[in-house]
Amino acid sequence: MKTKLNVTKIILISLAAILILCFFLYCSKSVEMKQLDCIAVDEQTGHIAIAYYTTAAKVDVFDSKGNLMFSKVYDTPGKGIHDMLWKDGQLYFKMGKNTVLVDSEGNIVANDPNIEFPIIWFDDWEKDGGSYKKYINGVEYRYDKANFFEYFANPVDRIYINDGESEKCIWDSAY
Length: 175
Hints:
Number of strands: 13
Number of helices: 1
Structural class: alpha+beta
Order of helices and strands: HEEEEEEEEEEEEE
């Protein structure tokens, strides 16, 4: 009876140790990645803006062919860019508590415009397994999120543009 209790104890302690090790591995891999804040696609032009956080908030904007239009770091101490929206061909986003409008080079041109953002950026995207997809003018925009088990190997979130003839990866979370 005592041996059976000892074996059960050893198994439980081993399982707890494995779970703790998995948690720390997951956390360490997550810290090494760029952290996606949000994505916004312009319904008119097909431009896509990607906001993410490394050691600072950064926004990359691409045209519908996947060509980089601008990449800009914004000074938002300890905060990312969590809301983003294209309206009338212009990009708006929230930096901390301020809502800003940026020009075609990423420079802030106005503060606090009265803009309402979607509750969650992927609300109007189609969920397909581990991917989110959006279609505009025959172009597919796809965000592939690494699943939990990939964090034990090489976790990479990616964003693609597919115009039907070719597919281009425009962003990935690995450094």
